[in-house]
Amino acid sequence: MSPQPEIAPPALEPPQLPQEFAASERQILLSIARRAIFSAVRGEKPVFAPPSPHLSRPRGVFTTLHRAGDLRGCVGYVLPIFPLYHAVAETAVAAATNDLRFTPVMLHELPGLQIELSVLSRMQPIDPDRIEIGKHGLVVSFAGHRGLLLPQVPVERGWDRETFLAQTCCKAGLNPDVWRHGAMVEAFTAEVFGEQSAAN
Length: 200
Fold this sequence. Notes:
The chain is of the alpha+beta class. The protein has 2 domains: 23-120, Hypothetical protein ph0010, domain 1 (Glycoprotein, Type 4 Pilin, 2-Layer Sandwich); 124-188, Dna Ligase, domain 1 (2-Layer Sandwich). It is 25% helix and 24% strand. The chain contains 4 helices and 8 strands; from the N terminus they run αββαββββααββ. The strands form 2 sheets. Strands 2-1-3-8 form a 4-stranded antiparallel beta sheet, covered by helices on one side. Helix 1 crosses helix 2 (84-97). The longest helix is centred in the first third of the chain and has 19 residues, at 23-41.
């Protein structure tokens, strides 16, 4: 599916959230993601040892790939199913090779690939009026459908709270106002960092 051209709205300034991961831990996780992608593209399967107890705790995580400023893949685990370092490797490979919106990443693309990780907190039900743009990611569930948008999405697109809710409903394949009519709305926070920001 080809992305549609659009005029980007002014970016909002996201709130500053406490950081759980030190710069060194961010670098380790980003290195795992890149090595996993490199190996997968070459048809290899790397083995990663647990880097530390902290990075071995089960966490939900999304890996987002960009190339030349464009989205190149995004896949993740919402629930804390695997140890974080393992989940990073799995989602990085899936984003590069199994995001059905894109063709698999090729070897020549790797040098220009930018990797961003979003490590998720646990989901909690939330009153729509308490959603904070830039702080919360959303999951909307209704009638067997579920849609998720990461907290950086409304910031990048300049959405307000109601637009964020509507777009999350659309991501689930639902009517945009179903959040007003019985859908479950859950929120999570995410620590988001990429290869350009890992040292911050």
